[in-house]
Amino acid sequence: MRSVKGILVQFLLIFFIMLITSCSSNLVNLVDNGSITLENVNTLDVIFTKLQVFQDNENLVIKGRVKRRYYHPQIIFGYVDVILFSPSGSVVMKKRCEHYPRRLPKSRFDGSRFSICIPIIPSGGSKARIEYHDR
Predict the structure, then answer these.
(1) What does pTM read for this prediction?
(2) Could you give the number of structural domains in the chain?
C-alpha cells in the first residue's frame, strides 16, 4: 500500500505537468508585433478594458471587457461593433457581438465580457475599431 506522502507527490507531479503543457499556446498577439492597430472608442456611458487582439489559426480574435462608467446611473443594454480597416483605409469587414452579462455592471466591477471571431487575418498596417452602441 502506498503512503499518503507518495500519493501526494505523484498528484503534484501530474498537476505541474498538466499546468505546463496547458500554458503553451500558438496564439500570436497582433498588437504587440505591430501588424494591427487597435482603436477603441470610449463614450460618455461606457469604457473598454482588457482588450486583446490575437491570431488563432486562420481567425482574428478580439476580446475584452466593456463596463459603464461609475457616474452613469441607468442600466445599459447594447452591443459591441468591430470594424476592420485595410492599410489603405477601406472597410474590410464589420461584425457585431453581444456582451455577457447583458446588463452592464458599474465600473467598480470587472465589466461584461465580449469576444468576436473574424475569419480573416488582416495584412500589416490594418486597423480595428471597437465601438459600443445602445439598443
Answers:
(1) 0.72
(2) 1
